[in-house]
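#dry-run=false #mode=assembly
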Amino acid sequence: MTIKFPSVDFFQELARRMEADAAEFEKLGFCDTTLGIQVNGDAPHLYALTFEVFDCTDVRELSSPDDAELDFTLAAPLSLWREMFESIKKTGHPEPAFTLNSLSHVGDQMAVVYDDPEGHDKFYRFMATIQAFVDQASDLDIEWA
Amino acid sequence: MAYYARDDFFNNPEVLERSVDIFSGNLEIGWKDLDIELVRCRPSDPRRGLTFEDTNVGSYGWDQIPEKIRHNYSMAPRGAFLPEGLPHLGYDINRKSEVWADNAPALYEESKARRWNPTREVPWDAVEQIAHGDELERGLAQLYTDLTCMATALGDIPSKWVWHINQELLELKMFQCAQMFDAARLADVARKRPIAGGTGLGRDHAPLGELLKCVLDSGNFPCASASAHILLAGLMQTLLRHIGACSPNAADQTISRFGVQDVSRSIAYGVQHMQYLLNERPDEATSLTGHLDEVENALIGYLASPIFFSAMALVTAGSREQAADAVPQVAALYRRFSNEHRERRNSAGIGNDASPLQAFVTELEA
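#status=ok
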């Protein structure tokens, strides 16, 4: 199945896989946050992903960051998202340079945007779950926008 | 032994007579008749189970804890019947705002749910096949040695204060127990990693000791909380993130990812603790700000220490030849850390844009 990135369908598929792989995500523990995924480029997109307990319960595309209460937003150009997912595709996990932590560490590749430092720290409190969530794209056939 | 029970039970014939009477089947079961609140609690979300939030009802809940606790100095859990004559168990922190944060009960549940076991979950075979150079490994060993010391201190802070805190604040005390275990796990894995890697541990150094002593010797719990949970845990979060970003080794990736989660819960508690305290007692902001500035002074000694700075440069560059070129990256990391620290201080209500750390990083950039 080919699935377009970026799209609501793409993140809903990851949410569906998260629910299907309950044992993995239950082991990682509760995850309660609403985060933004921002894809910059000629046609920018912003998505709100809501995580509750062990699931991603809601995926929405936003027209403005003000349309949802986002704890933090991971913002990067489409080319970087593509590099990250292609790295994940190789072995099921990203190469060290392409983990969410590495990409966002100093902020010069992937920006972590937030209003409230407590929201920002949720990125780190739930890091393992969020990384495992994106790693599920490893065997998706992605059509790049 | 400093306390002697108010009765010499062993030599009291009434105690023996009563025991014999009970053992012969004459049970005293009047204790069953209690005038206490009866409630029923169920998990609001079955996937979470029965959480503290679910039992935050009526007299059992934390919402009814008074700011000044004058009615209970016993070990009894909140909501239990308290007869006359209970001994005072010596609690000397009896004020809710001294320790409370509204997120503490949920952080305790989160800590249990997100537990991990480095003994089995770190891919230790990756440490047997280290693909990076000896110099990067040596730099990592030094940072892990420092992290072991910091994690030990981060566990010592709640253990130093928890037994002073009134048992009415039980959710907070249980969160502190979780903090101790989180810190023990981090000290455990940070120490094991360089030993397993074959490089062995690095060296202790006075600037780190000065910083940790400033944190540990905080004169009251709010000062200890501000310096341990906002400053020290924030520094540890940055170091763990940096190790994850610089080391290509799968073991380091795992330690970084899970370690960051553990220290970030302490940060979340620290910020909300300050918010709760200053909402109740805004005048405390001045002394807390001054204390944190003083601990930042010791932090500068650590950040500027040759051992730490050069270990950071070595880990950032990956080799000694390129370490000098990595200095601007280390400076950029200091800027990011100081910015995040300033944001947390501001959110907590103890901000100081001209604090020693801010001034130091600005000087460094100049």
